[in-house]
Amino acid sequence: MIKKLFLVVLINFSFSLFAQQEKLSAENHQKHSFEEAQKALKNQNFYRAYGLFTLAQMGADVALKDKSIKKADSLKIILREKNIHEITGNWKMITTESWAMREPSDSVVGKMITIEPNQILFYELYPKAKKWNLVQTEKLIFSDKENMTSNPLFIAYSNKEVWSYYIDQISGNLISSYIGEENENGISELICGNKQLKYFKLQ
Q1: CB 120 within 8 A of CB 101
Q2: Which residues of 56-94 are buried (b: 16+ CB within 10 A; e: fewer)?
Q3: What are the tens digits of pLDDT across the range 10-33?
Q4: Could you read off the pLDDT of 72-91 as tens digits, one per residue?
Q5: Are residues 64 and 55 in contact, defined by beta-carbon separation less than 8 angstroms?
Q6: What gap in Å lies between CA 86 and CA 89, rounded to an integer?
Q7: What is the pTM of this model?
Q8: Whether the Cβ atoms of residue 115 and residue 197 lie closer than 8 Å to each other
Q9: What are residue 124's DSSP bridge partners?
Q10: What pLDDT does residue 4 have?
Q11: What does each C-alpha distance from 94 to 67, 89, 101 come to in angstroms?
Q12: Which of 23, 49, 102, 177 could form a disulfide with 41 if both were Cys (CB 3.0 to 4.6 A apart)?
């Protein structure tokens, strides 16, 4: 009987100790994330700082969480303005094989987009046409829905599609990647096989 009682006490103590260690670990992780975010911010690595401040929001320290939210919100504005500045311009799509699948009478010989601070204009060029034909216009609206990577630069189209636009640092080309779709719970993201389009800048 004494052995059983001792075993029960030992088990309860072990669970209590484990819970305390888990809590301490979470608090340490929150504090560490915040401190690393501060370092990244000081080094002007804004994207890393944003991600770390987002992580620092997950913890029991309410004051640290509030500070992290304010820091992340401020960085979100900076990152979005920087992204818009980088992708603004006229971009011609690098030819894809899918164009060859269209009927000759309806073939497209070129595609381009014009990115402005508040909208994205999509154009197509048809055979013998003297000017580009505007086929689609989307407002440049960043999605505030939750996503797996806490990326603040996902752009939401009017049909709920979510795309990412960024400049490839090696080639200088504009890369447009399909991420998924917005829904009530956030963004349903594709893990692999994402459609990706490439553009070069027109002078």
Answers
A1: no
A2: bbebeeeebbebbeebbeebbeebeeebbeebeeebbbe
A3: 344 344 434 444 444 666 888 899
A4: 999 999 999 999 999 999 99
A5: no
A6: 9
A7: 0.79
A8: no
A9: 111, 133
A10: 43
A11: 44, 16, 16
A12: 49
